[in-house]
Write a structure and sequence with these properties.
With about 425 residues, the chain is mainly α. It is built from 16 helices and no strands. It has helices spanning about 5, 20-50, 50-60, 60-80, 80-105, 110-135, 145-195, 220-235, 235-265, 270-295, 300-320, 325-350, 360-370, 375-385, 390-410, 410-415. The longest helix has about 50 residues, at about 145-195. The two termini are about 25 Å apart. Residues about 1-10 and about 205-215 have low confidence and may be disordered.
Length: about 425
């Protein structure tokens, strides 16, 4: 045995790895910037038009994100995820600072806000797959589950800090100050991303492009088809994508629309919505912390399936919670179970996918929650108006339970494990 082997230091855990911490800092800054930007945009839209027009402006960004997300995965794989994340945060920084400058000079019309939302959605379509493809290039494979836990904590922190920070900026310096704060946060991520040193990737089915200097060529549609074939032929990733899609379809509508309707019907008002969302966020944050500390959970595939089934039961129970404290406790359980299953889904994608396809696979895994499920929100509202909030929660829970049952009945997914 060589001296090099004898003296080799064991890999650092993710929470002590400077590379991971740089990436985490950049991701947190970008996530907080997102929250500040969306609050500023919504306030600017409400101040410039009717509630219906403001809703249209806020919905505009979802269209290019849904249409371009899969192609964003191709771009992330071709150019390399760090380059794409850098370019995306640079574009968002320049756009939000540009909006701040316009607001200092004049009052923008709704058309300008809608155009900004459209561009922001298009940038998101390439940013999101690249973020999903970057962790294997900065952390060891056995640390990727812990990285997903840290990412979940950063996302929750962004949601918790972003809205109050944006509101404070609007209150003290107006909309220009809020957009300027968002631009500064995006700018903060750039030097952290530039300082990342990428790890050599393991042997791949297809050489990665972008980060190692290979030439990216050939039709984009061919690369997209290659990624979809990789998914279809993979014994874990194919069933996992179906599981994620079903869970998103059952979860996103009832939780985003149903909670507001439930609070209104029960007379809990806006504070009730806040408490329910806080309970859900606390549960999801606890799940992320659990995975970040433990690094992995045993029998990941089986745990994923059962947490989805139990989470479906908790979603259905929300419809029957008689009082607000009970509903908040149930929301904590929903957040905890959904947080565990969501983190395990991301971790399995990271560890099972060939790194050459990770941008495209990350795009497919995000398509349900960010592209297809939001389109069902109007249907969720219409169904609640016809049959009440309870049946909406029960129907969503049934779809979530179906996703968990599917995961448990597919042997290759049920036996999937995270690396030690």
């Amino acid at each position: 045995m060589s001296a090099a082997v004898l003296t080799a230091a064991p890999p650092r855990p993710a929470h002590r790895d400077p590379q991971v911490l740089r990436w985490l800092g950049a991701y947190t800054a970008s996530t907080v910037g997102d929250s500040v930007y969306y609050l500023a945009l919504s306030w600017a839209a409400v101040s410039s038009g009717s509630p219906a027009q403001a809703g249209l402006v806020m919905a505009v960004s979802a269209v290019p994100r849904a249409l371009l997300l899969l192609f964003g995965g191709v771009i992330a794989d071709r150019l390399g995820p760090r380059r794409v994340v850098l370019a995306s945060d640079t574009a968002r920084c320049l756009m939000t600072l540009g909006l701040a400058a316009v607001l200092l000079a004049t009052s923008p019309g709704l058309w300008l806000l809608a155009a900004a939302a459209l561009v922001f959605g298009a940038v998101d379509a390439v940013f999101l797959p690249a973020v999903g493809a970057l962790p294997p290039r900065i952390a060891a494979r056995d640390q990727l589950a812990r990285v997903q836990g840290l990412r979940g904590l950063a996302y929750r922190m962004g949601s918790v800090l972003g809205a109050p920070l944006g509101g404070l900026a609007v209150a003290t310096g107006g909309l220009a100050s809020a957009f300027g704060a968002a631009g500064a946060l995006f700018a903060l991520s750039l030097p952290l991303l530039c300082a990342l040193r990428l790890r050599p990737l393991p042997t791949e089915e297809k050489p990665p492009t972008g980060e190692k200097g290979e030439k990216a060529d050939g039709p984009v549609l061919r690369d997209l088809a290659d990624g979809l074939r990789h998914l279809r032929g993979h014994r874990v990733l194919g069933p996992l994508m179906i599981t994620i899609l079903l869970a998103d379809l059952g979860f996103v509508g009832p939780l985003n629309v149903g909670l507001a309707l439930l609070a209104e019907q029960r007379g809990w008002g806006a504070p009730g919505i806040g408490w329910l969302l806080a309970g859900f966020g606390a549960g999801a944050g606890a799940a992320s912390l659990l995975l970040a500390v433990r690094g992995r959970l045993p029998r990941a595939g089986t745990t994923l399936g059962w947490t989805m089934v139990l989470g479906a039961v908790a979603v259905a129970a929300l419809a029957f919670a008689p009082r607000l404290p009970v509903a908040v406790a149930v929301a904590v359980a929903v957040g905890l179970l959904a947080g565990v299953s969501g983190a395990l889904c991301h971790a399995l994608v990271q560890t099972e996918c060939d790194p050459a396809y990770l941008g495209r696979v990350s795009a497919v895994s995000s398509l349900g929650s960010l592209g297809l499920a939001p389109l069902g929100m109007p249907l969720t509202g219409a169904a609640a108006g016809l049959w009440g909030t309870g049946p909406v929660f029960v129907a969503g829970a049934a779809v979530c339970a179906l996703s968990g049952a599917f995961a448990l009945t597919v042997p290759s997914l049920r036996r999937a494990e995270l690396p030690r």
